[in-house]
Structure formats: structure tokens, C-alpha cells
Amino acid sequence: MGDDAKLPLDSWHRAQGARMVGFAGYEMPIQYEGIMAEHLWTREAAGLFDVSHMGQLQLIGEGAAEALEAVVPGDISALKPGRMRYTLLLAPDGGILDDLMVTNTGRHLYLVVNGATKHADIAYLRSNLPDSVALKHLEGEGLLALQGPKAAEALAQLDIKGFEDGWPAPGDLYFMQSAPCLWGDVPLGISRSGYTGEDGFEISVPAAHTEALAEALVALDAVKPIGLGARDSLRLEAGLPLYGHDLTPETLPVEAGLNFALSKKRRESADFAGAERILAQYPDKADRLRVGLIVEGRQPVREGAVVVDDSGAEIGQVTSGGFSPTLQQPIAMAYVPASLAAPGTQIALQQRGKPFTGTVTPMPFVPQNYHRPPKS
Questions:
Q1: How far is it, in rounded angstroms, from Cα 278 to Cα 270?
Q2: Domain annotation covers residue 196
Q3: Within a domain: residue 291?
Q4: Distances (CA, A) of 180 to 133, 153, 345
Q5: Were both Cys, which of 116, 274, 305, 355 would link to 351 (CB 3.0–4.6 Å)?
Q6: What is the Cα–Cα distance from 28 to 18, expressed in whole angstroms?
Q7: Is residue 322 part of a domain?
Q8: 203 with 320, same domain?
Q9: CA–CA separation, 89 vs 76, rounded Å?
């Protein structure tokens, strides 16, 4: 799947009535019946998202976890088979080049990186990994995300089994767990994860079988195809940053509110790219911080709106914004001076010269609904 390539489901989306837009070198479905309806459907049932534009990579070879740790701040070598971790790909100066998911499959590391950055990520990883670690780009795989409170119930109707003894079936996974599975004789990689704040699964499937799997899922009463528009409004309500918008190479992890991605062991070893600059901000010494805003009125502020002080001078930026279908009011994420980041603080905004008022509010805006193990 190179630039301007077609997704495995390109013609399927069109047959489903999708409105397609250009994104990350592909034509992608932005919506089918409408963003609001699709958003609310995912919150109450199950939505099927095509995320095949994302980069699926394997790191193979002795010492792959330790080698990856040179450019990410997560404790990858401690990941047990079937476990996954959110982490950050870091530039030499500590800036964020991408955010990604890393899974220990028991045989190799499996990475999912953002679609718009995958080719740059691959080049950067190759230049930083030793020759003993091979990087394989899984261009022949589709990636589907089934998200929502009825996702597990829907997936159970497809009779997908654990790949072999010792690996769980999909319904037995908890949030941030993964397993190889079989749908008939089709091998799938399934993780209980996603980027909507809801329970759900991401399913890696051979490209040739992607359409059959999508058809089998949307044939179920609980499942409808959902476009990128609702994926964006869902992740915004969940308080999740979007790379290229809320995270950029100019962003450091602490100011982005991603302290959890800096594991204790790695902070102590301080042997990852940009560690000195990053740890100088840890845990609460950043000059600016990513915050959530509830915006007064009905009109949303969008990326590019600015945070201003009493004199009208720009002191921060809105990086994501939209109308929340769940809360029925506009919400946004912005970078503001650390002195203005406390919940309840009123923030002055300007969009195309028009003033708006935001109130700092804790994220997520809508409670996350992940399927976690029961507390003992």
C-alpha cells in the first residue's frame, strides 16, 4: 500500500454509500449516513471503522525490544506475550515523531503507527535499529476497528477462536491485550483496543479477506460502518490526542499530558532519545500544557483558533475542536500556559477574529468505557 494506493475496502466503502476524501495517500470514508448518527451509534451499539491506512510493522530478531527502547520511552522489554503498550516515537531532541501501539506477539514485536507518518517512521526506525533487527512492513494486511459497547457481543457471533492452546478467544481479552486468532482458516491478529474511548477491538486481517470480514460484521444487527468523521469526534470526546494536530515534532511528552508514557524504569535509566530535555519537564515543569476546554455557545472552535491574553496577544493554540454529539456542546483541546491549566480556569479564544470563551475541564470529556479486569 504505497501513496495513492487503494485500501482493500475501497470499492466496498463506495458500495455502502460512503463519502470519500483524500487522507494519508488514500481515499478514505469520511461518513456514510452522517457523522452525528454514526457517532451516537458507536456509543450505543458497535461501529466498524476501516483503519487499513495505518502502518502495521513487525520488528523481528534478538534484542528487538531493547533496540526499540532507544527511540521510545516505554518499557518494551517488560511486555509479556499478548500485552500491548502505547508509546511515543521520539526525535533526538525529544520531540514526538509519532504515537504508536507496540504489542509483544510472543514471536516478534508488532507496531501500529499512524498512516500519515508511516513511511517516515519506517525510515527513522530502520536508521536507528541494529542490523540484527529486521523491520517488516505488513503491506498485505487490512486493519479494522470494531468499537462500541456491543462490539464483544457482535464479534462473538463470528465464531473466532484462539489460534492455539494457551491463547484466549477475543471475548476473553481485556483492554490492551492481544491474541492471534482464527476465523475459519483465516489468521487474524486481534487486540482489545481502539481510539474511541469505547470497548472494542482492532483486527489485522489479510487484505484478500478484509471485505469478507467487513461483510460478516455489518450483517449483524449491532454493527454499522462508521467513517473517519465520527472516529475523530469520538476520540476528541475521549480526550485522546491526534498525531499531526495535538502532537507534533515540536511537542514534548509532559506538555502533551502523556506522563504515563514515560515508564519509571525508563525515566531512571534515561537512555532514550531526548531523555535529558524530556525529563527536565517531568513531572510538572512544562511551561505549557494540553488541556480540555468546554466552549460557551453552540459554535465550535477548530484547530487553528488561538488562545489570547487580556491584551489580545496569542499565548496558545487550539489543536482539536468540534461539536460533541454526546454532550451537545462544543469541546476542544488546546495548549495553554501552565499557569492557566487548572480545571475551571476561563480561557479567552479567538477564531477568525471572533471571541470565544472556554473553560478548562478534565479529560476525557466523556467517560472511557474500556473492558478492564475486575479489581481484586
A1: 9
A2: yes
A3: yes
A4: 22, 19, 47
A5: 305
A6: 9
A7: yes
A8: no
A9: 12
53 closest CA partner among 87, 102, 100, 9 = 9
CA distance 278 to 263: 12
Among all chains, which residue has been given the C-alpha cell 492557566? 340
Which range of residues forms the domain containing residue 304? 287-361
Domain check: are 230 and 294 in the same one?
Answer: no
At residue 144, the 3 state secondary structure works out as strand
Q: Supply the DSSP string of 318-354, one letter for each residue.
A: EEEEEEETTTTEEEEEEEEEGGG-STT-EEEEEETTE
- Residue the block writes with cell 451509534: 41
Length of the chain: 376
pLDDT tens for the chain, 376 residues: list them.
Answer: 344 579 999 999 999 999 999 998 999 999 999 999 999 999 999 999 999 999 999 999 999 999 999 999 999 999 999 999 999 999 999 999 999 999 999 999 999 999 999 999 999 999 999 999 999 999 999 999 999 999 999 999 999 998 877 899 999 999 999 999 999 999 999 999 999 999 999 999 999 999 999 999 999 999 999 999 999 999 999 999 999 999 999 999 999 999 999 999 999 999 999 999 999 999 999 999 999 999 999 999 999 999 999 999 999 999 999 999 999 999 999 999 999 999 999 999 999 999 999 999 999 999 999 999 998 7
Residue 193 lies in a domain: yes
